[in-house]
C-alpha cells in the first residue's frame, strides 16, 4: 500500500501541488491523468523519492518519507528498492543490447556476474513483452516504441512491489499499447503490485485502470473508479475541453472529444506545457 498524506511539491520556487492525499492498494492499477504541466511526472518522482516533498508524508508499509527529509536522505536505496520506476524519457544512447539492458534490471543483486538463471529470466521477460527477436540489437538502434517495450521488460525484471510507469505507451501503436497495458494489469494482479501509470489517453485509462488519479495545476481534482470520476464536467474543468461520455459494452466510460473550451481558468496561468 502507498499512502499520500497531504503532500505538497514545489518546483522552481512555485507550489506545483498542495494538499494531495490518496491511498493506492496492492493488486490495483492507478492511472494518473491530467493536463500538460499538472505535475504527473513530479508526483511519480516524489513517490519514488527522487523529488523532495515540501509538506506531508508518503507511507509505504512501515517506511515513511516526509517533507523534513526523512528516508530520502538517510536511506534512499532502501526506499527505492521496492519500486520499478520507468521514466518518461526512454532515450538511451549506450552500446548495450536489448538483452543486456533487461538484465540490468537485476543490477542491485548481481555484482558483475550474470548467471544463466538471470539470462533465462531476462529472455522470458523479453518474450512476455513480445520483443525477444530484438534481444541482440543495440538498444540505441531501436525505435521509440521498441525501446519502451524493452524498458518495460526491465521493469518486470526488477520484481518490484510497486510499479511507477511514466507514459509507458506514448510511443506505442494501438496493438502494443494494449499488449503492454494488459501485461501491466496482469502482473499487478498476479504479483499483488501497487501500480501507478501516467497516461494521456483517457480511454486507455478508463479501460485499464481500477482507479483514476486526476491532477489539475495546483493539486488533486478527483480520485476514484473511472465510472464515477469521468464526467464531462470534470473533464471540462480539468482540460478545458468539451467531451461527451459514452459507455462501452462493459459500462466503462468512453470519452468522445467535441471541442476546446475558452481560456484556462485555474492555477495553470502562465504555465507552459
Ligand atoms: N526542473 C524543473 N524546475 C522548475 N520547474 C520544473 C522543472 N521540471 C518541471 N517543472 C515544472 O513543473 C510542472 C510540472 O511538470 P511535470 O513534468 O511534473 O508535469 P506533467 O503533468 O508530467 O506534464 P506532461 O504531461 O507535459 O508530461 C511544469 O509546469 C514544469 O514546467
From TrEMBL:
Alphabetic keyword roster: ATP-binding, Nucleotide-binding, Translocase, Transport
Keyword Cytoplasm: no
MF (Gene Ontology): ATP binding; ATP hydrolysis activity
SUPFAM superfamilies from the UniProt entry: P-loop containing nucleoside triphosphate hydrolases (SSF52540)
KW Cytoplasm (keyword) present: no
Domain ABC transporter: 2-242
InterPro entries on file: AAA+_ATPase, ABC_transporter-like_ATP-bd, ABC_transporter-like_CS, P-loop_NTPase
Similarity-based family: Belongs to the ABC transporter superfamily.
Function text: Part of the ABC transporter complex HmuTUV involved in hemin import. Responsible for energy coupling to the transport system.
Name of the protein in question: Iron ABC transporter ATP-binding protein
Species per Swiss-Prot/TrEMBL record: Pleomorphomonas carboxyditropha
